[in-house]
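Please review the protein record below. Let me know how this chain folds according to its tokens.
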Amino acid sequence: MQTFLTDWLYELLSLRKSPFKKQDWISVDEELPDADIEVIAYTKNGYHYLTSFNGEHFYEDDEVAINVTHWQHLTTPAL
């Protein structure tokens, strides 16, 4: 079930130019996220995904997201 935040993130991440600072990205060669938390993944093709890592693969809606090169934690907005 998608929420307002999920819809907003999908809209934001559909932009071709990344709104995130380069230093925020973590290379999958250096570190992988903890299992079963949502992160933003960046692929070799230049796409962004709201995804999770299951300990082996990044996935979105039960499909494996291939060619992930970098990822970052979701941030909490300052209210």
Q: What stands out?
A: The CA atoms of residues 16 and 47 lie 7 Å apart.
